[in-house]
Every structure is written in structure tokens, then in C-alpha cells.
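Course assignment 3, question 2. Fill in each field.
Student: A.L.
Task: Predict the tertiary structure for the chain below.
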Amino acid sequence: MRDKYFKLRNTLNSIFILGAFAGMGIYMWGNQTWGGIVIIVAIAFKFAECCIRMLKR
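Answer field:
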């Protein structure tokens, strides 16, 4: 069932997935500090998506 926030939630989830993979890559093969920062920012996008999902109920 699609609601009016369906596209926004999917976009936020896509940003989260890409950010999480990028952050893992940076953490493993690059700078661990920047990798952690990228992962934390990705988690913030997931948190925003969860808030939208919970507030619509």
C-alpha cells in the first residue's frame, strides 16, 4: 500500500544503503575516522525514514 511518503521513504532508504556501503568501504580501506562519520550520517538518514514511518500511523 502506497502512501504520500512512499517515494520520500524509498529515497531515504536508498541514501542509507549507499552511505552504509560507502562508509564500510572507507572504513576498511581508507580512513577509519571518515568511514565512521559517513556511517553515522547514513544512520541519520535511516532514523529520519523511521520517524516518518512511525509518525504516519
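Instructor remarks: The chain has two helices and no strands. Residues 22 and 30 are 11 Å apart (CA to CA).
Grade: pending
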